[in-house]
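Please review this one.

:::
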Amino acid sequence: MLAIPRRRFGLRALARRRWAPTAITGLWAAWWSYFLIASASSPSHEGLGAGVWIFNVAAPMVVFWFAFIATIRWRQAAAGLLLVVAAFVFIGYPMQTGPSFGFWTTAFVMATLGLPPLAAGLLLLRRRHRPAA
């Protein structure tokens, strides 16, 4: 008799894995921390003051790494935090940049900056609201 294997991929399978939201958030925080440090150390940012550096580099990195630590320690609170961060990105980024960037640049940055916390937050919510078996 031919046995059909259980589905190993997909949203349900990913939601069953406890490490998935943490991995998504960790990779997201690491990538954007690297990008922020690399862009802040470019020659075009040499004349900026400490206040601009703190606002544009340090504050986002604190949020990224706090979200990562929250997914490890406080999973239920992290779901809400990640969804708030994703909403802030999807609403705030287009308002901040305005028409200075093109559509595709804005869409790419919103996808790489906003979708990972949205996905991790939804996975944490899905795991929290699973019915008891």
In short: The chain has one domain: 18-128. Residues 18-128 form one domain.
